[in-house]
């Protein structure tokens, strides 16, 4: 994630900021430039905004800004009502209830982080208007309270672009309980978004692009019965020695899940590296040829995933050690073996249009 500077005063500002803490100017995210900018009301209309640094375009805030859920901008000449992140939402929590508003804010924060990566790589993201059968659609669903008072949890999942996110997992206790029950090393809202959209990306960039053969060479035959594979996973668990070839035990379930997990991890790694670089964090000196071609080290522009891994592995080890010093679990509890790194490189090659 990039760091930004206020166009009005030059103070550092962060992706999540709604206003500059130094000068107080309101901030809005401009998707066309993938930048956070200081804005001021348009002279003609108080509900329209112009950037402080340039007056060429008129913007309006995403309607969800009314609930302090989103601060992304929409060009006033756009036919879209909502911003690039929020326009894919179907069902959303009720913002008129304290739980609904709090959960939606947390979920939206993760969702906008997801779309930051989609914008950086210009990944395909048709909605249901463009593709009624397979376009992106997010339903943020509450658990169902049954007549007897018991709770029926919502299942997180993907079906041809339709992604369901369980709103209850915006609450840390619920998410941690689920993590422990599933014996997972970590569980986050952003991880859910990245994993589930990985299935959508597989549809678009592997299946629909005619790349199933190259996919199968690394991940296996995705035509294997998915439900049987899922049942086997939950009844038997991962196979012995799975850690040498799969990024997570859930990745062992089926080739689709293996790809989705790898997609999520490529986004985890690249975005974390960009954040570290913006803060000036570096642990291992990079080779001279790498520095010559990537002096600014923008991980989103690096095409060789081996170079990404070269920087990420020592950084993640250091971060894990820092967490241990605080008595916390590993921040990144995963090992990039040669086989796993090859799978991640395949996904990265798709995203950077090299495959």
TrEMBL record:
TM ranges: none
Domain Zinc-ribbon: 3-94
InterPro entries named in the record: MetalloPept_cat_dom_sf, UCP012641, Zinc-ribbon_6_bact
Record-level Gene Ontology MF annotations: metallopeptidase activity
Lineage top rank: taxon: Bacteria
Protein name as it appears in the record: Zinc-ribbon domain-containing protein
Organism of derivation: Asticcacaulis taihuensis
């Amino acid at each position: 994630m990039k760091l930004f500077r206020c166009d009005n005063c030059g103070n550092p500002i962060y992706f999540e900021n709604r206003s500059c803490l130094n000068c107080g100017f309101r901030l809005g995210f401009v998707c066309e430039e993938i930048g956070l900018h200081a804005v001021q009301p348009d002279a003609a209309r108080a509900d329209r905004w112009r950037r402080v640094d340039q007056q060429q375009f008129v913007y309006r805030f995403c309607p969800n800004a009314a609930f302090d859920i989103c601060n992304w901008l929409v060009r006033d000449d756009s036919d879209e009502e909502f911003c690039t992140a929020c326009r894919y939402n179907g069902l959303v929590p009720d913002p008129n209830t304290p739980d609904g508003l709090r959960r939606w804010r947390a979920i939206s924060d993760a969702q906008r982080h997801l779309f930051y990566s989609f914008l950086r790589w210009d990944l395909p993201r048709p909605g249901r208007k463009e593709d009624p059968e397979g376009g992106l659609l997010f339903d943020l669903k509450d658990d169902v309270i049954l007549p007897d008072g018991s709770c029926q949890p919502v299942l997180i999942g993907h079906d041809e672009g339709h992604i369901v996110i369980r709103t209850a997992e915006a609450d840390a206790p619920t998410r941690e309980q689920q993590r422990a029950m599933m014996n997972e090393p970590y569980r986050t809202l952003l991880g859910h978004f990245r994993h589930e959209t990985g299935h959508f990306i597989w549809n678009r960039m592997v299946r629909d692009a005619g790349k199933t053969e190259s996919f199968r060479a690394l991940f296996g035959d995705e035509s294997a019965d998915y439900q049987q594979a899922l049942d086997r996973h939950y009844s038997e668990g991962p196979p012995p020695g799975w850690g040498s070839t799969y990024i997570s035990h859930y990745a062992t379930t089926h080739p689709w899940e293996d790809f989705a997990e790898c997609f999520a991890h490529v986004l985890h790694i690249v975005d974390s590296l960009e954040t570290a670089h913006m803060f000036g964090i570096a642990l291992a000196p990079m080779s001279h040829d790498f520095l010559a071609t990537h002096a600014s080290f923008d991980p989103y522009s690096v095409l060789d995933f081996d170079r990404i891994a070269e920087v990420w592995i020592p950084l993640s080890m250091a971060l894990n050690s820092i967490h241990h010093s605080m008595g916390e679990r590993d921040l990144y509890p995963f090992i990039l073996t040669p086989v796993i790194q090859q799978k991640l490189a395949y996904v990265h090659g798709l995203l950077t249009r090299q495959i």
